[in-house]
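Recall that a protein's primary structure is simply its ordered list of amino acids. Everything else, from secondary elements to tertiary packing, is in principle encoded there. The following example makes that idea concrete.
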Amino acid sequence: MTKRGGPRAIAELLREDAVSGFLLIGGAALALVWANSAWHDTYEAIRTARFGPGALHLDLSVEDWAADGLLAVFFFIVGNELKQEFVHGELRSPRRAILPIVAALCGMVVPALIYAGINIDRGATALQGWGIPMATDIAFAVAILAVVGRHLPPALRTFLLTLAIVDDLGAIIVIAVFYTDHVSLTPLLGAAALLAVFAYLQRGNGLAAALNRSAVPNWVVYVPLACAIWMLVHTSGIHATIAGVAMGMLMRTTTRDGEETSPSELADHRIHPWSSSLVLPVFALMSAGVVFPGINTIISDPTAVGIILGLVTGKLLGILGGAWVTTKLTAAELNPSLSWFDITGMALLAGIGFTVSLLITELSFTGHPTMLEDAKAGVLAASLIATVLATCVLSIRNARYRRRGFLTPRTTDQGHAETD
């Protein structure tokens, strides 16, 4: 037997959700320690340093490059995985797919209403933060599920992934509509045209087939094309991460003659380790550096309280309640391998609002540094509370499934399921 090691072994390790999560958590922890240390000024100098071609509207800070640029790679991975689920997986059945979608929508509306109710008497500036508790952090949530839920049914991860991407997309739409001063139509149409080219190349026939047979590596075409799409979406005023989702959802998940794996599987295999080891930790490092005002300030500030109650309580009520009502009023059904106790734990897990919540926080309170810091502290506090509560519930469920001898299958590089 040949022992595998070196870069390949490291890449395989980085594809594990748990490892990705630990790196993300490590980046966030480092940011918090750094921002609250004697080297705070150095951290801020690095985070706010600007570079990039100004003529292309890309003279951005390091924090912006992490949130707008690097994070688009992560959203590509998520969109690509969701496409595989819709074509080959659990979500092929509309009766199964509709449940997490409706739950996600309810899990967006209820937290926003809770935040608005708490801050309704504080003026228009405070109310700007109503979109902050809407989004679930996919990377954190999936990582925590991987760590504490090794024996949980795979359908729960699919439910969480679908729900998280739907409400993150919803949050991005909210950003485009309510937090964007101006949307430029010309670059948006340009991005749409290049996405059509991207979709054509994914068909794998005609010119696309000729490209695959040529000596020119595919990345020579796809990388500049993806960068151009991202740049046009960013220039249009819409948050550029939606470009990553769009390209991920356009990936072809089937094979053509002469292909051993589909473009979707190949892209995931090659890009996932970079997303885990670079994209997410750097984003966390650049976004989570909050100077904590102290626990008394957090629990007394309406902005932070609205975010905490929105993410922790609002997500639970919205997701669990929305899913349950949907099964009663429509033909939608819960996967037979899941129970409502599982959905309760998953709904608590959805209260981890890190990535997009911090993005909306930055947009909500630009020019109001005190409110910005309080809101960021609220996001991080809510995420910690949601993590602890979800871990308790899911650990109970995990122990129950373990006693029943159930083990969540893993996917190998060849696409086959295996268990330990």
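Residues 409-420 have pLDDT under 50 and may be disordered. Strands lie at 50-51, 60-61, 410-411, 417-418.
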